[in-house]
């Protein structure tokens, strides 16, 4: 149940992470699309701005030149004829009309038209109220939008009418082409505005913004839903001649608006384009990518769900198999208990998980309580018994510790077998440990089977020990050294040969010599620990084998101690006897990796020691 809840939470977490990732990706790409689109717009309208600036400067230059010409024409007699020569310039300048005006809205054009122009009243008022040349627009009498460049001039009288301003007019189509009104599929609006938002010029509106207005900013602020901080920033930036962008929504339609100075007075160019015109392709890519991410996420979630389902199915199947296996093992264990009761001396069923044991004795009186704490049982066994396995320096409490058992008993077929004895060596036993209980692959229950081996051990000891001294014999020496080398267990071999023993044997007889050898054997045993070995190799040659690593200096001190111990006087059969010993050592594995080399090296050093002892005796004599 806990695992299922964990899987559900994990799946929900993955769904949340994927959703948040998709949202984050969507917002990131949205920002990138906005940035790329506005930068492209700024670049486009930057080029338009340069073209417009050149166009304005050109027309103002024309007005300046022609106003100077007017002063000269006024002095000539045939003024009208000479004036009309500028009609020929129309093909070069592409204007629709050049005209003279006065404050009464009277006009005279180079094409020969003259009269009143009340429809131009507001445009002409701007000429006489502004200081310097102007650019403005108006609707002609034929309903056509015109763009007019005008400035005041020195009064010129023609046909008894005095004119005080001069203008060059263009069809709005010229401005449309120049300001990019046909760009972006003909759906863009372009305005030339002053820094306060007052409109100087505009193309025919393509968006939903009406044509008749005075201030673009006031209209937008009152009618559209804009990103207000950016809108306020635009109002601050334009007087400072900065550029930037604003997004707004009008009648549920989203627009990009970019602004930048044109380099003429405080004017700025404003470009307005629907967002779907600018970034429809990029948004399609974005939506396709998001859809692909959603599909991939669903596939991943489906895969994870399949994994969880298969895992849960496998877990249930495994749990059922374990239940069946446990039932089978329980039945086998019960049968085994009944069978073991007839053939083994004693056995202990141990619960490692709950620190409990049950003890069953079949041969003698009970050795310890029939049930109790498993760890207490180990402590009691460690105080009463020692392990006899060759080369091992392990206590029972370590051998039977739960963590050691779990490390060595991995499968049902595994087992641990070792020989152990009471500390006084009066009883010898063989213990076999087998696993019988598991939980989720973890060993939980064992059986320790104990068999009395005292009879077999006596026979084996007779075969492995020296009959005179009771020390281990050469046969057992070979077996022990082979076992230690096989286990790669470090040890030190001390090889001894008695000095002056032959003279004792010759002087006092073999019976005294045998008793002396027995006394030497006891002293040699006092030089080693319980886990070490003492051997009689034959005649008056002995060997000591200590378990564990030792430095050469420590080995030399050990040699001195052994020689000193052996050299102490002996009281044998009423006589005080004194002998010596020569001793050599070899370190495994530092000085050799096989038993023959180690034995040979120790023997060589013993022989050198004997030569040294003989030289000292000869010198003393």
Automatic annotation (TrEMBL):
Pfam families: GGDEF (PF00990). Residues 309-336 form a coiled coil. SUPFAM superfamilies: Nucleotide cyclase (SSF55073). The chain crosses the membrane at residues 287-309. It comes from the Bacteria. Keywords: Coiled coil, Membrane, Transmembrane, Transmembrane helix. Gene3D superfamilies: 3.30.70.270, PAS domain (3.30.450.20). InterPro entries: Biofilm_reg_signaling, GGDEF_dom, Nucleotide_cyclase, Rev_trsase/Diguanyl_cyclase. Residues 489-621 form the GGDEF domain. NCBIfam families: GGDEF (TIGR00254). This is GGDEF domain-containing protein. It comes from Faecalibacterium langellae.
């Amino acid at each position: 149940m806990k695992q299922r809840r964990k899987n559900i939470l994990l799946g929900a977490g993955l769904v949340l992470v994927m959703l948040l990732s998709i949202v984050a990706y969507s917002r990131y790409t949205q920002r990138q699309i906005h940035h790329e689109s506005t930068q492209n717009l700024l670049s486009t309208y930057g080029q338009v701005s340069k073209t417009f600036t050149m166009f304005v400067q050109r027309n103002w230059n024309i007005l300046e030149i022609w106003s100077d010409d007017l002063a000269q024409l006024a002095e000539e007699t045939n003024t009208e004829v000479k004036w009309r020569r500028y009609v020929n310039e129309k093909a070069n300048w592409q204007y629709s009309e050049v005209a003279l005006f006065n404050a009464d809205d009277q006009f005279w054009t180079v094409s020969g038209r003259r009269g009143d122009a009340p429809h131009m009243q507001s445009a002409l008022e701007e000429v006489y109220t502004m200081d310097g040349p102007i650019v403005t627009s108006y609707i002609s009498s034929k309903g056509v939008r015109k763009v007019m460049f005008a400035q005041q001039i020195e009064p010129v009288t023609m046909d008894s009418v005095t004119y005080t301003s001069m203008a060059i007019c263009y069809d709005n189509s010229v401005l449309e082409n120049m300001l990019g009104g046909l760009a972006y599929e003909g759906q863009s609006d372009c305005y030339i505005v002053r820094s306060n938002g007052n409109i100087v010029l505009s193309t025919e509106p393509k968006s939903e913004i009406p044509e008749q207005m005075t201030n673009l900013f006031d209209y937008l602020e009152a009618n559209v839903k804009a990103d207000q901080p950016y809108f306020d920033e635009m109002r601050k930036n334009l007087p400072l001649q900065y550029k930037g962008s604003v997004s707004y929504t009008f009648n549920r339609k989203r627009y990009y608006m970019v602004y930048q100075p044109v380099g003429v007075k405080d004017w700025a160019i404003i470009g307005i384009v629907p967002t779907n015109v600018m970034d429809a392709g990029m948004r399609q890519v974005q939506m396709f990518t998001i859809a692909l991410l959603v599909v991939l996420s669903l596939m991943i979630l489906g895969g994870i769900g399949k994994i969880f389902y298969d895992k849960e199915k496998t877990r249930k199947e495994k749990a059922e198999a374990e239940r069946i296996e446990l039932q089978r093992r329980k039945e086998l264990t019960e049968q085994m208990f009944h069978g073991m009761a007839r053939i083994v001396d004693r056995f202990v069923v141990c619960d490692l998980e709950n620190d409990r044991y049950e003890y069953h004795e079949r041969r003698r009186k009970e050795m310890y309580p029939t049930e109790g704490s498993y760890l207490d049982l180990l402590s009691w066994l460690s105080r009463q018994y020692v392990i006899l396995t060759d080369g091992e320096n392990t206590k029972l409490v370590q051998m039977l510790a739960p963590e050691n058992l779990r490390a060595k008993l991995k499968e049902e077929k595994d087992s641990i077998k070792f020989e152990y004895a009471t500390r006084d060596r009066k009883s010898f036993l063989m213990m076999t440990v087998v696993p019988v209980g598991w939980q989720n692959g973890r060993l939980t229950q064992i059986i320790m089977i104990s068999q009395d081996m005292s009879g077999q051990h006596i026979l084996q000891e007779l075969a492995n020990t020296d009959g005179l001294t009771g020390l281990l014999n050469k046969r057992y020496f070979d077996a022990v050294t082979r076992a230690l080398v096989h286990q790669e267990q470090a040890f030190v071999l001390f090889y001894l040969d008695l000095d002056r023993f032959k003279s004792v044997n010759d002087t006092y007889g073999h019976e005294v010599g045998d008793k002396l050898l027995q006394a030497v054997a006891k002293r040699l045993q006092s030089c080693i620990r319980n886990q070490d070995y003492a051997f009689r190799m034959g005649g008056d040659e002995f060997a000591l084998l200590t378990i564990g690593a030792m430095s050469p200096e420590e080995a030399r001190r050990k040699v001195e101690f052994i020689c000193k111990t052996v050299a102490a006087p002996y009281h044998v059969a009423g006589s005080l006897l004194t002998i010596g010993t020569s001793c050599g050592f070899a370190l495994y594995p530092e000085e050799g990796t096989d038993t023959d080399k180690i034995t040979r090296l120790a023997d060589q050093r013993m022989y050198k020691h004997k030569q040294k002892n003989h030289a000292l005796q000869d010198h003393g004599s």
